[in-house]
Amino acid sequence: MPGTTNGSNGSTKTMGALTAGALVLVTAYTVVLGSNGWLWFGWVVLGLLTLAVAVTRS
Q: Which of left, alpha, beta for 7 (phi over 0: left; psi -120 to 50: alpha)?
């Protein structure tokens, strides 16, 4: 509900920021040391979890 703050929106924003930061780190790792499939797989899983949390909280 707009205007209410129960803390859940903050945790969703935090998770979104973590996902974006992880994307930057995985991209930098890929540029410097080459691609690592497990890192990209982990980022995709984190992104899907973030999306699921955002959908269920709204």
A: left
